[in-house]
Write a structure and sequence with these properties.
The structure is a single chain. This protein has helices spanning 2-60, 64-87, 89-119, 127-145, 152-161, 165-169, 185-209, 216-240. It has 245 residues and is mainly α. α1 packs antiparallel against α2 (64-87) and α1 runs parallel beside α7.
Length: 245
């Protein structure tokens, strides 16, 4: 009975440690979303201001296309800011941070209980230790029900940090490059914003310099490829710098 309880405690410590790591990763991910959106809004608002000035100038000179594009883009910026504001990335990140602290407390309590049981000479379990174990698990379950859950991507990264690749990829397979890429809807939305920013900057550059728009696809393709290459290099560097526990 004693060794069986110790086995359950050890399993719960490992499980809670994985969940805690996933919560830490999720909190950090949401914090980065907030920071990325702050940078994006600087660019979007700057482009919107430039577009507004160009739109007014174009309206005076009877060029309604540029005016319409600038007006639609300004409306888009307002809608995106309203949408992102409702996501509360910073607040959600902070809540997940507090939750991982709560899980850390549970892990510490389970660890202390494990040591105490190991130090007792009896083969049978003290009923007080058993009741304490049930109380800690109940506290942990209540804690889980009161917070936002992490994404599958966060769980995978938590497993990678714990050097448990075999549980995800099978017998000794190496971590795939794409396994650590964030394919969440939130990150895709952020990626789309940069595409829009590149598009609008390119459009206004062609308008201001009076360039022939037949070259626009080639310009845009070149800028986009450079952006994707830079992002891939940055991600590869971050992947190689993962710190293992």
């Amino acid at each position: 009975m004693k060794w069986q309880l110790l086995k359950y405690i050890e399993e719960n410590i490992k499980r809670n440690n994985t969940i805690r790591n996933a919560r830490i990763i999720s909190s950090e991910r949401l914090r980065k979303y907030s920071e990325k959106w702050n940078v994006i809004f600087v660019w979007l608002n700057l482009i919107a201001v430039i577009g507004t000035v160009l739109g007014i100038y174009s309206y005076i000179h009877k060029n309604k296309i540029i005016t319409l594009v600038s007006a639609l883009f300004s409306l888009y910026v307002i809608l995106v800011q309203d949408f992102v504001g409702k996501e509360n990335y910073s607040e959600r990140s902070l809540k997940l941070h507090y939750h991982q602290l709560s899980l850390k407390r549970v892990i510490n309590e389970l660890t202390k209980l494990k040591i105490r049981i190991q130090c007792t000479p009896e083969h049978e379990v003290n009923w007080k230790d058993l009741e304490l174990y049930k109380y800690i698990l109940n506290e942990r379950n209540q804690s889980l029900s009161g917070y936002e859950n992490h994404d599958d991507q966060d769980y995978i990264e938590a497993k990678i940090i714990e050097k448990k690749e075999k549980e995800i990829y099978g017998n000794g397979k190496k971590i795939k490059f794409w396994a650590t890429i964030d394919f969440s809807v939130e990150n895709i939305q952020i990626f789309i914003q940069w595409i829009i920013i590149i598009t609008m900057i390119s459009y206004y550059v062609f308008v201001l310099l009076g360039l022939d728009f037949k070259w626009f696809p080639y310009w845009y393709l070149g800028i986009s490829v450079i952006y994707i290459i830079i992002k891939a290099i940055i991600h590869s560097i971050k992947k190689n710098n993962i710190k293992y526990k």
